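Q: I'm teaching a short session on how sequence maps to structure, and I want students to see two examples side by side rather than one. Could you give me a first protein with its sequence written out and its structure tokens following it? Keep the formatting plain so it prints cleanly on a handout.
A: Of course. Example one:
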Amino acid sequence: MTTEPDSSAENAEPRGAASATDPPVGEPPTTGSAEDKPLTDETAKAATETPATETPATETPATETPATETPATETATPATETATPATIMTPKAAPPPVASAGKSAIGTADLVFKNITRTAGIGLLVLIAAIAIFLVLRATHALSANTGHFLTTQEWFPNETPPKFGVAATLFGTVVTAAIAMIIAVPVAVGIALFITVYAPRQLASILGYIVDLLAAVPSVVYGLWGLIVLAPNMKGVQLWLNDYLGWIPLFNADSVGRSFLVAGVVLAIMILPIVAALSREVFLQVPIAHREAALALGATRWEMIRTAVLPYGKPGVISASMLGLGRAMGETIAVALVLPASFKISWHWLEPAGNTIAANVANGWGEANSIGQGALIASGLVLFIVTMIVNIIARAIIARRRDFSGSSA
């Protein structure tokens, strides 16, 4: 009974000694703690001085911590910098050549389109210059043989010997008939466009739009025959009424009425009406909805909304449409040739059966003209060409002054 405790104590002592001295397998050896060592005089002094020296000892790691962290960040930065070229050089970076190939294809298409449009623009200028040169060259011989003044003479005898002709009467008739057509057609066309875009219901607006566009497809000879057979006889009552009540105005004072400037102007007005109305309608449709709604929200009536929001925005487009209609009216040939009696006289009485235009004179006189007569007709065409160019330049200048409302300055 006494030997068992002694054997257990002997066995426990080596186990405790082994656990205190020998480290476990795989772990670093540990040193003994300060409690197992006997306290010497030096350690006692160090222990007593520890509270006084602990404060700088604890501050020292605090000051050394940023110093140790800074190299870590500095070393991490090159690591990322060195990693970036590695990622660029990887096969995953192949898309840039594909993107550049796509950009080169788009650039080629843009270059081709740019060259085509540039060629078209330059070709148009060359064509206009070629027409002007042709007219000048073909008219030079006739103008040199003319015995009258080309711009002021009213007579037209280019086939006589000596030839005597002038463009004054035909130019006057061209300007007068075109002016009458513009005075009648532009307000009516703008009114139709406003009704279609603002007032009319959607279904009715689409039907009216188709009808107005259909008028532009009618041939000019049909308008001329209609003006000669239907309009001219039925316009006599209107012309007599104007003569009776507005005869004190020289323009409406006439001894007789018939196929006059007024009839020709009405025919031209009907012909250019679909052009001006269609273009004005498209311009009014482009007015921002916010402009209209803002005007109505401020308490404006529908007419005030049109006057303040729609018309200022669409004015450049209406001017452009009017200039196109004016060019059509000044260059119309068959319809005017069938309506006017082809007389060469400047008459300020627009109700009398007299008058002629440059285009109608060319159509009527080309078949019977000799070489000088053809040159004279070509010279009158050159005058019409110059007048049309001047009118278009003036129109472009007017439109340029209204850029704020056209939206091109945005």
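Q: Perfect. Now a second example for contrast.
A: Example two:
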Amino acid sequence: MAIVKRNIRVGRPVLRCKLTGDNRLVVCVDLQSSCAVKVLEAQTQATLGGFKIELPPKSPFDFAIGDRAILAYNRAKGVIDLYKLDSREKARSFDIKPSHDELSAFAASDEGGHFALGDGRGAFTFWTTDNAQPRSAAKGLNPIALVKLSANGEYAAIAFENGEISIVKTANLDDQSLLKLHRSAVTALEFVSDYLISGDQEGRLALWSLKSGKLLRVYPPFGGAIRSVERAFDDRAAIVATESGELALANIERDLRPMALDTLGEALATATFDNKTELAVVVTASWNLLFFDLQADKAIEAFLSPPQDSRGPQREEAIKAIVVDDSVTMRRVIGAALKAEFPSLQVFEAGDGKAALDLLEQNPETKIMFLDWNMPTMSGEAVVERIKEAKVYPNLQIIMATTEGGQEKVMQMLRMGVAGYLVKPFRRDAIAKITSKLLERIGK
């Protein structure tokens, strides 16, 4: 368990909390008629200063904090005000009314030179703080629920109300990857090195490749909605805070179950981390600030350490295959043939299309699927359509195993991108032959 170094009772709603790169803790507190900005020395919690922003806060996205500045959304005037943390004064304002009537998402880059805005009408704008006009803009998107910028502002992640996520290059908003996984609202986004981490209302945490947009990993679900994800330990990990009170550490470099740091008795709103001191600050639903000292924790060191060469050659990860058929007998026939001919295969079974998609979501690295056509709940054709629409399983090879043997049916599925076709009843050696070809195709 992590060590709580100190607990500070704030007494008012905490809208934003961030550990900056120079070991300062910046806290935005709702005073109803204004916002109090408090700056603390992170290690000692000594007060370094503070000031007020004279506008009534309404929601957490009214404020975004960078290392050197705070951006505040003035709803009444339709502007973004920039306040310098060192001078504690308003430096300039940005008129956003031509682009947005009302914001639903607001984010700043860590270095503070960029910010991004999104609204419920599907408009997105990207700004630099030295320019009065947006640097780039897009309209006609789905309603936007959440926005996150990478540390240097090169990338933006846009979460839509339908659960989809778009990764865009801010210099060219047409250069984007659309990520489809989450079926519920995305509640947290974070850029970690070359990756994007997303968390949703159902407690699922996903890791994506920033450059390719490929889904790399789906972690075991948490017990409550994910409220915050924060990069940590020099981008080797992410700290996750949940609505159910879990504080956990996810290893980015290794496929491990997240490590529990603490389980608190109340919901967590957000977490922030300082790499230099390995200090984590967590905001609870009752407006407490909890300071966790994670330095020199041997359990964390072991969790983050790469596999040791002294363990000898690492076993190559097993290739995963999913057999989908509503017939238990047929699943066993195909599964037994696969295991007998290819012992290194890890074979999963699903009794219908919905169960198959759930299995695939939990095992996104799956390479082979044997799929029946006629099944209850969801047909094989519908499963293929969902997989192709998701665009996050590009290496998945699908073999249709079914009684639907007409030429028209065969051509239809081949046009949809399936890798092959087996018509029931088929011989055991046919399973081995087609699987061997698939393994050659994927280089195994």
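Q: What should students look for in example two?
A: Point them to this: The longest strand covers residues 172-179. Also worth mentioning: Residues 320-441 form a domain with the Rossmann fold fold (CATH 3.40.50.2300).
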